Amino acid sequence: MRMDKDKSKAENLNGPSYLNGQFLIAMPSMTDPRFARAVILLCAHSKEGAMGIIVNQPSGEISFGDLLGQLEIVGDEELAPLANELAIKPVHVGGPVESSRGFVLHSSDYNVSEATLPIQPGVCLTATIDILRAIANNEGPEHSFLALGYAGWAPGQLEDELASNGWLNCAIDADLVFQNGLGDKYDQALALLGIDPSFLAAEVGHA
Length: 207
Description:
Structural class: alpha+beta
CATH superfamily: VC0467-like
Number of strands: 10
Mean pLDDT: 83
């Protein structure tokens, strides 16, 4: 597992915004199994492409305690005293690109100069190892979502997928980003648009 040890260049994720800070919600017709029922927080979108973090896919293979050990942030003797809730904090699948790289979506009460990217009020992105140390020492943000990897699109690719009705998009809900019930996030994201998931699936089935 790898987490950037140098400060990330937030400006690489910035630029002329299009759908920055919005949710992408996969349509039921999505054929790529990596994005089936995915809800993605779009962190950056410009003429150079787009990147986002899936917020409803568990990894099922690694916990925060495991990650701290693998990155040698803490030794085995230091893992034991960690509060159980913190040690078992889940790590999620953020997307298929650079799946060994760590990203943390978090509340705006934490900031690393020149490394933390504000996405929307109440939601930021940090991809340096500093935030993991802070969380382990109970000095991190009040809310955090840990992910490995991200979803990425080449220039014009996301626009083509949107035009082909592969995705819906809407304003984000910060509470939905940080809540624990991953299985509910897809339906709740659709509800932000006033869409009944069963009706949408039926419409697709009759297309």
